[in-house]
Amino acid sequence: MPLLEVKNLRKSFRMTDSLGRTAGQLVAVDNLSFSLKQGETLGLVGESGCGKSTTGKLILQLLRSDAGKVFFSGDELTQLSAGQMRPYRRRMQMIFQDPFSSLNPRMTVGAILSEPLLIHRLTPPKQVRDRVIELLEKVGLTAEHEQRYPHEFSGGQRQRVGIARALAVEPELIIADEPVSALDLSVQAQILNLLQGFQKEHNLSYLFIAHDLAVIEHVSDRIAVMYLGKIVELTNAEELYKNPRHPYTEALLNAVPSPDPNHPRPAALSGEIPSPINPPSGCYFHPRCQYADDLCRKQEPLLLEIGNEHQVACHYSEQVGRYLLRKAGTE
Ligand code: SF4
Question: Whose CA is nearest to atom 7 of ligand 1?
Answer without folding.
Answer: 286
